[in-house]
Structure formats: structure tokens, C-alpha cells
Design a protein that fits this description.
single chain; 212 residues; mainly alpha; 0% strand; globular
Length: 212
């Protein structure tokens, strides 16, 4: 698994900076406009409700509540180190915010659905996608590596995490708040950071668990 994590990290690193280069030189403009129009062509009230719901976990107070509920659940299950380690997730949002400031890409104009609100910050990369990839990716990671997770619990956590990670990118494009390349950059940055967290877990947390 560690070799796989390193390969994912390297691929994500290269992919993120390649996407950043293409975005900063406006070589993705046509692709981005066509991507939003394609996704929004499937618009319906039910699909809009789903997309709003999917994005809700990355909105302000819901983000904080979701995280602390997860950290508290780990504490209740006796995973104190894992609960504390999970606070590193917030570094992902910090790095995403810094990347937005450096790149300073404006949000899409003219694509916002009435049910959505255009955030006031910049567009690249998608902070929602970065957070979901790191947070729900860590949930899935714990489901795989923690020994006391039941088979049913593991399956449920993996399915829910996978669906939310996969759908959040689509939801941000559908709602008109991000370009497709914002989402791609968010996934790549999220995978990069998740790979770093996983390597750190194997290096510093797992040996302490094994030594007890």
C-alpha cells in the first residue's frame, strides 16, 4: 500500500501543476465553458436538490460539524491518536485557500443556478473538492486500516465516502460555482494531500499503535 500511496502522490503532484499551468495560461477556457454547459444540460429539480445536498457538507458550519462529529466518533471508539491525527485535515483547506489567493482565478460568470450562491473567494482549485477528497478519503482510509471496523461498517463507509467524493465535483460544476478544471485541480490537490497524510500515518501513528 505504501508504494501505491507514493505513486498516487507523485502522479497527483505532476497532474496538479500541469493543470495549474494550463489554467493560468487560459488554455482550458473552451473546455471549461463546454464542460459547464454539458453538465447543466441535464438540469432538473430533483438533480438540483441532490447536487445542493451533496455540496452542503462543505458549506461553513456544516463542514465544522461534519469534522467534529467524525473526530468525536473516533474518540468514542477508542481511537484517540486517529482522532487527533484527523485535525491535519484542516491543512488541506488552508493550502487550498492559499492556492486560490496565488492563482486568483475568477469564478464562472453567467452559469450560477438560482439555488446556489456564488462564493466570494477565487475559483481554482475547488475547496469543496479538496476537503471532500481529504476528509472522506481519510474516512475510507480508516475504514480499511482500523482493525475493529466490521465488514458491514467498512462497506458502508467506503460506499458513502466514494459517492460523496465522486459527486461533489459534479455538483460544483452543475451549480455553476466552479469550472471543470477547478474540480480537476481540487481532486489532484486533495489526492496529493491525502497521500501525504496516509504516509505520515504509516510512519508515525501505526508504529505507536503496534507498540502498545
Amino acid at each position: 500500500m505504501r508504494v501505491t500511496l507514493i505513486l498516487v502522490f507523485l502522479a497527483s503532484l505532476v497532474g496538479f501543476f500541469l493543470t495549474l499551468l494550463l489554467v493560468s495560461t487560459h488554455q482550458t477556457d473552451t473546455f471549461d465553458r463546454a464542460g459547464i454547459q454539458l453538465v447543466q444540460s441535464f438540469s432538473s429539480p430533483f438533480l438540483t436538490w441532490i447536487m445542493v445536498f451533496v455540496s452542503a457538507f462543505g458549506n461553513g458550519v456544516f463542514t465544522v460539524f461534519t469534522f467534529f462529529a467524525f473526530a468525536f466518533a473516533l474518540l468514542l471508539k477508542g481511537y484517540r491518536r486517529q482522532s487527533h491525527f484527523s485535525f491535519l485535515i484542516w491543512l488541506a483547506l488552508l493550502l487550498s485557500w492559499l492556492a486560490k489567493l496565488i492563482i486568483a482565478r475568477p469564478r464562472p460568470d453567467g452559469y450560477l443556478l438560482p439555488e446556489a450562491t456564488l462564493p466570494s473567494d477565487f475559483s481554482f482549485p475547488s475547496g469543496h473538492v479538496v476537503f471532500y477528497t481529504v476528509f472522506f478519503g481519510l474516512v475510507a482510509f480508516y475504514a480499511l486500516v482500523l482493525p475493529d471496523v466490521s465488514k458491514l461498517g467498512r462497506s458502508v463507509l467506503l460506499i458513502i465516502s466514494g459517492l460523496l467524493i465522486g459527486l461533489v465535483g459534479l455538483s460544483r460544476i452543475y451549480l455553476g460555482v466552479h469550472y471543470p478544471t477547478d474540480v480537476i485541480g481540487g481532486y489532484l490537490l486533495g489526492l496529493l494531500l491525502l497521500g501525504v497524510l496516509a504516509v505520515f500515518y504509516f510512519k508515525f501513528i501505526l508504529p505507536k499503535e503496534s507498540g502498545e
